[in-house]
Amino acid sequence: MASHVVGYPRMGPKRELKFALESFWDGKSSAEDLQKVAADLRSSIWKQMSDDGIKFIPSNTFSCYDQVLDTTAMLGAVPPRYGWNGGEIGFDVYFSMARGNASVPAMEMTKWFDTNYHYIVPELGPEVNFSYASHKAVIEYKEAKDLGVDTVPVLVGPVSYLLLSKPAKGVEKSFSLLSLIDKILPIYEEVVAELKAAGATWIQFDEPKLVMDLGAHELQAFTHAYSALEASLSGLNGVTGFGFDLVRGSKTLDLIKGGFPSGKYLFAGVVDGRNIWANDLASSLSVLSALEGIVGKDKLVVSTSCSLLHTAVDLVNEPKLDKEIKSWLAFAAQKVVEVNALAKALCGQKDEAFFSENAAAQASRKSSPRVTNEAVQQAAAALKGSDHRRSSNVSARLDAQQKKLNLPILPTTTIGSFPQTLELRRVRREYKAKKVSEEDYVEAIKKEINKVVKLQEELDIDVLVHGEPERNDMVEYFGEQLSGFAFTANGWVQSYGSRCVKPPIIYGDVSRPKAMTVFWSSLAQSMTKRPMKGMLTGPVTILNWSFVRNDQPRFETCYQIALAIKDEVEDLEKAGITVIQIDEAALREGLPLRKSEHDFYLNWAVHSFRITNCGVEDSTQIHTHMCYSHFNDIIHSIIDMDADVITIENSRSDEKLLSVFREGVKYGAGIGPGVYDIHSPRIPSEEEIADRVEKMLAVLETNILWVNPDCGLKTRKYAEVKPALSNMVAAAKRLRTKF
Ligand code: GLN
Ligand code: ZN
């Protein structure tokens, strides 16, 4: 019985690759230094899998940036502006595409399916001259072989590659990406031939696009591509095996039961690559036994549901994690062991001790008092079946709010955070490490808030924020104060390039032992007569940016978080905060891959948001904020959130967002599409901002438009923020005189 792993994290157990990359980019170390770190990481991964007994060990899943960019390099599809003149693509051209250089910005980056991993979007047009320009797959295969490990080289499949691309500038409307298939297949054939010559007997083509809703034309491309590959590669017997995700693919098992091509291998992805939970080995074993009955003993391979890239690296580096919680977890290194244990169990070599330890952990997770909180379960169950809406409609509410707030037209505000200086980060870190007393910490934060309040008053902003100086991260801050969350020391997951995130782990029922933000928000409000926004992260965003428990549906967990945030909203209101912003930055990114599942998700996600604020007075103004630009398909859900004001990251996709309203979607609540991009250090001029606002006014009513930047200002410097906001306020004031 064989075992297989789809792919493995690249960063290393302590983010070794991140530090090597950043040091190389800063010119502090050489290309050889970087190569050495990368090679060491690869070799330790291969050795570990080989020691663990994995039969099919992947190679070429390592990357110094991204596997899609690696494929772009393999195909020589470098956009001309990067000045590549042929030859093997090296770090200079590669990292210029990834990160830009002094004269050319980076290529676009976008989210990989429904994960938090981002890939570099290939830009393809009829002019691209494909050529075999990066031999990385072959080099890494040989590198492993030299270490005594025979691996399965992994390639992003040709059809998914094209479908993940975008048409190059100038051909956006007229170009079919799939029309390039016959141009890239010859390169794939070259790569495969070279891999075969080097000794590879298996090659893994990742075609993740197959999980999407595809049209006949796209499906046809798969058939065409793989029969062409087969025909050209004599000796390679067609597609020999198929790997499926049996965790996310809720219908996969039934489909396989309904018929699987005879004589082919089934790589059964039963170990979840998307979370940090230990596998329920007994239950996986019964799934595998059923599959064995269908495909036969010698054709079943135990595998992971997807690449382990999307999970944390190694539990060994979590000495501080609570022992019981730790027994419920498996990071990438542990998942490899699980895969192998399952494979051995199927062929009669069950490691009884390992299985009974696992069963004990599963049982403890089911019965542990730290997981279940009866009161929370009951409160969440009571929510179901009822709708949660504020008692008056939005226009009545806006009237009541305006009586209290008395804002000018085109009111100005910001999204929450202000620049986080090194000094500020230091104070927070030292307080956490108990090197700074509570008193000194409060004093330092208070001073910072005061500075931010005074600055906003000087700038003459209408609705103020406290600047979030006490927060390291908008999810972590709340997770740390809620019950049911655990945090790791090294549970990093690659987000893009060298950037990693460390999602909290939601292991139990979520509740709020005490108020989380009221102290700071009241303090900030006491410093000014202007309205001070209370600032919260919404339940859907907390959920989508965490590792979520898998022992109850996601929506249950989301409702529990919603109830906790509801308590916070109501406490803020009681403390005299009249404007409360509940960020749902990540609502859009939780959208399921299949269209048939969209409505269900949007329903509970939007419902969760409404639960948080359905209980406030008409005169309390609820804001929300959303990042990332693809809203057009969910605009009706956004309206259904029924916030009084929504601010939206917009400046990178201006026309798209406004076109919804141009096409007649009615929006009656306040809306603030960001007027400038805070991701760039560039300072927008007053004219430019005024222009932007005027464009918005052409489609949106004057009395609902707000003027604000795209997102929080945390990553910017004061030298950028002050003039930018000053221009923003000046633009708003100038436009006000016109009405
Ligand atoms: N309130 C958060 C902040 O300003 C929102 C962050 C975001 O836009 N993602 O930092
Ligand atoms: Zn944002």
UniProtKB/TrEMBL annotation:
Q: Where is the Cobalamin-independent methionine synthase MetE N-terminal domain?
A: 3-232, 238-293
Q: Which Pfam families match?
A: Meth_synt_1 (PF08267), Meth_synt_2 (PF01717)
- Which sites bind L-homocysteine? I415, G416, S417, D583
Q: Does the keyword Transmembrane helix apply?
A: no
The UniProt catalytic activity note for this protein reads: 5-methyltetrahydropteroyltri-L-glutamate + L-homocysteine = tetrahydropteroyltri-L-glutamate + L-methionine
EC number, UniProt record: 2.1.1.14
Could you confirm whether the keyword Ligase appears in this record?
no
How the cofactor is bound: the record states: Binds 2 Zn(2+) ions per subunit.
Q: Which domain of life is it from?
A: Eukaryota
Record-listed Zn(2+) binding positions = H625, C627, H636, D640, E649, C711
Q: What class of enzyme is it?
A: transferase
UniProt-annotated binding residues for L-methionine: I415, G416, S417, E468, D583
Q: Which InterPro entries match?
A: Cbl-indep_Met_Synth_N, Cobalamin-indep_Met_synthase, Met_Synth_C/arc, UROD/MetE-like_sf
Query: What are the binding positions for 5-methyltetrahydropteroyltri-L-glutamate in this chain?
Result: K18, N116, R499, C500, W545
> What are its GO biological-process terms?
methionine biosynthetic process; methylation
Record keywords, A-Z: Amino-acid biosynthesis, Metal-binding, Methionine biosynthesis, Methyltransferase, Transferase, Zinc
> Which cofactors go with this protein?
Zn(2+)
What terms describe the molecular function in GO for this protein? 5-methyltetrahydropteroyltriglutamate-homocysteine S-methyltransferase activity; zinc ion binding
Domain annotation Cobalamin-independent methionine synthase MetE C-terminal/archaeal: ranges? 410-733
What does the function comment of this entry state? Answer: Catalyzes the transfer of a methyl group from 5-methyltetrahydrofolate to homocysteine resulting in methionine formation.
Sequence similarity: Belongs to the vitamin-B12 independent methionine synthase family.
Q: Which PANTHER family match?
A: 5-METHYLTETRAHYDROPTEROYLTRIGLUTAMATE--HOMOCYSTEINE METHYLTRANSFERASE (PTHR30519)
User: Cross-referenced NCBIfam families, in alphabetical order?
Assistant: met_syn_B12ind, PRK05222.1
Q: Spell out the protein name for this chain.
A: 5-methyltetrahydropteroyltriglutamate--homocysteine S-methyltransferase
Q: Which organism is it from?
A: Salix viminalis (Common osier)
